[in-house]
Amino acid sequence: MHSRKIIIIGGVAAGMKTACRLRRLDANADITVIDRSENISYGACPLPYYIEGLYDDLMEVRKTPAGALRDETFFANVKGFTTLTRTEATAIDRQAKTVSIRSLADDTTEVLNYDILVMATGNTPILPPVPGHDLNGVLPLKTMEQAEQLDQLADQAKNAVVVGGGLIGLEVAEALTKRGIQVTLLEMKDQVMATALDFSSAALVHRELRKNGVNLRLSEPLQRIEGKTSVEKVVTDQGEYPADMVVMAIGVRPVVSLAADAGIALGATGAIAVNDQMLTNDPAIYAVGDCVESIDLMSHKPVYVPLGSTANKHGRVAANAICGHPDRFPGILGSLVVKVFDLNVARTGLSAEDARLNGYDSVSLTATSPDIAHLYPGNKPIIIKLIADRSSRKLLGAQIVGPGVVDKRIDIVVSALTMGATVDQLAQFDLCYAPPFANAMDALHQAANTMRNKLDGLADSMSACEAYERLNGNEPVMLLDVRSPAEYEEIRIPGATLVPLGALRQRLDEIPKDQLIIPFCKLSLRGFEAQIILQQAGFTNVCYMEGGVLAWPYEYE
Amino acid sequence: MHSRKIIIIGGVAAGMKTACRLRRLDANADITVIDRSENISYGACPLPYYIEGLYDDLMEVRKTPAGALRDETFFANVKGFTTLTRTEATAIDRQAKTVSIRSLADDTTEVLNYDILVMATGNTPILPPVPGHDLNGVLPLKTMEQAEQLDQLADQAKNAVVVGGGLIGLEVAEALTKRGIQVTLLEMKDQVMATALDFSSAALVHRELRKNGVNLRLSEPLQRIEGKTSVEKVVTDQGEYPADMVVMAIGVRPVVSLAADAGIALGATGAIAVNDQMLTNDPAIYAVGDCVESIDLMSHKPVYVPLGSTANKHGRVAANAICGHPDRFPGILGSLVVKVFDLNVARTGLSAEDARLNGYDSVSLTATSPDIAHLYPGNKPIIIKLIADRSSRKLLGAQIVGPGVVDKRIDIVVSALTMGATVDQLAQFDLCYAPPFANAMDALHQAANTMRNKLDGLADSMSACEAYERLNGNEPVMLLDVRSPAEYEEIRIPGATLVPLGALRQRLDEIPKDQLIIPFCKLSLRGFEAQIILQQAGFTNVCYMEGGVLAWPYEYE
Question: If you measure CA to CA, which chain A residue comes closest to B528?
Fold first, then answer.
């Protein structure tokens, strides 16, 4: 019996997943995985937590939950395939179906035949070629070796600059801050997580970073890095920042040159184009993981969002396809979650800005709620932004930020988005409830119902950003705080007038009829109640502020 | 303009929600809520935590998250409607459209007209008429007054008996145990949460109860309660249990006599029957909350599952319907979650037993995984049981038990069930991932993929309960532990043989070919790997044990 030769180039997440699944489906295939590094099959996502000091042995990122090291012997004995480490694939000959490889250990070369080839070449950090980028102490965080270097640099560093406010930049900024280092975070855009979050959500992250001592510099691109042999400072057009170490985290790009040189087609994003079986334009070549682009399930456009969660799914689908086992990879929602100090930040689907760019007539809604019963110890608020299509009422996306539990609610929305649910359906989901876990009406139900009120014209509301603009505009506006005097004493929004909700029906004569009234409270509910009371009393120009004081991303008094 | 008179009988969750929403939709309606108690609008679900001592002021259960007490004044001033407390509705005249009421304060009576009537009469605990049920110190937990009494009894009690292993019984058993009281939990069935969980899931709860010192007595119905004026002991056919207090928690039934006397139709469950607008058989009478039955979204049959989460949704739908605003209540999934000491327990949809009773050809699958990245501090295992329809591959239900985060995964399944997702779709959900929140392949993805393997005939597996039966059967069986020697030393299943997975390919000659081999590991993955290795080596009678050591509900060595 002919035993198929399958070569997989790249032995981290997607490549190894493909190999393991292949072996389970096909006892006879001759499977070889090739990787440049010695450190195969490692998890890159936990590396920032190593720098933070949350675990001591860096090799943990290569271990199974049961503690087995995923090395060549493990893959041979347990998984049953061959791994060639410190081996580079230098060329692919698609006609001859061969891969040329070179050993990094002894520089020997070899040509391997394949029946099936799988590209799992991953991503590489983008390193801007600014002056000083090659100084010692300037590096990205992608490999275990870099994590080790950054950990050692952090032992000595007093000041660090992190360039880029994406996921890795945020995680490293937190890790270094917790090591006692003064961190400056440089971001060229006016917000962190610019491709993931709308400004209103990102602004809450900005506050958390600053609260924890990070010197956050927005709209400030890196100009150059200075130092003799090692970095000493980072220079922008707005200032100079002392730095004993610089972490480059402006993003990654797919590693595609080997594929492109062989004529494997790239997609619009520059990553390898594949169909929903992970097959490239060559019927013998598949591609998986961070070197390929995916279809966005909401926009139906190709996107490049390299994440470990996607890579694992790719590997399974590719192996199934290679073995003729029905499966398909439908696409992604750009779901992600990140912990930034005491704030949890998650998103999925389209942002309001994405929805606009994709031509949707969308409605956004922000609602703040406690994550669990307010009388159960440990409850914390979360601020939910939902985006929905106005006519179909289908959910388009969500962003949730807060000290409370956000990943749970984003994952419910992930499920809802994947299945095409409307906000009306979401509002009726029979989510599980008990005080230690949720409210009888979960935060997500509250948000969905508030969105329904808005879609139905029952609630007139605006975001905190809109309210801020109106407040600073030319027309007179009354920002009406309907909380209790005690709450007002504790923290307040500048320029607001206090009329507690319970007294509002009796004090209507204090509310001007000739200007826009913007009621608000701590969360959202009393602000909405105030809008209803005022409208039922004949006020025609009332629009409550969504999300309350807790969603206000500007200064408090 | 005619202002509609709307009377709502019952002012706890569903009734008050209906009233509040009505006022927001209709400025002119004349809305009156009637309740027997002084303590209206309270949350019953947090009462066990009061007994546990997690909050000090019982009135918290009547307060808004902002701290406002929801009393008559609050509902008048903030919400804008009338509440008559300590007032009993004694009769409904549907022809005359009147409700007769009686003041419990001064015994005066009155007859009120209505245009629309809403029944929100709730539930009442079932109190078995055993001898001694009326002794002092024997009571259910339903009202704030009872919570206060139980709290006071607990101050003096050394021994308590809780009758009934449902949600309230479990929560009270934990609360009293944490107060230092020796608790005996009597359950007449052979498992706790009998209507919610399959035995395999409940068995894990049994272990947790016993580990925490609860004297769990299964299959042991209450016979009588003894004492002079106060309870002294509880007697069953198997023993006597000293008791300074007895909590009756065998279940609740809907309060329907007022409705039934007026000819409002009851459903098959004995609760009030309503359509998806919460309308009864009388076009002027709606019913909401714990006095009505719901449609089960999976079985399409009427069920009686009174929960606060459902009650709130009912109220909104009823108010919308009354005001002609489009909405419908689609039904429920019987979703619930409960904390039992350090174990979180949640379920939704059909159990395996429900699926069988409803005529499904269903497949069940148990898989154990860490809830977050295994190298991130605080990760804990969860044991997921999925139930799916064999031919359509649609999910039918799930049960998740473990010290880790279970509510998140159940709620994802809730969404999937509501929208009719298959296990294949669930496996591809783009759930959010970062090490503090999940694994790259979430526990739910692992479970879904394992279910796919089982449905596709790639994985031959059996539950721990099946393995236990085979082990204790007449045929020879090899229970094959493929964990590491260190894991084996720590804890093991009686009768298992150790061959670590990494050595299995080399030690195949030690495995008998003539008997059933049941490999297993700590979670599930290595057990499955072992099955594949053995099958690929020619072993034909191999079936791995799902969920590993952590899902084993019997004794360990």
Answer: A24
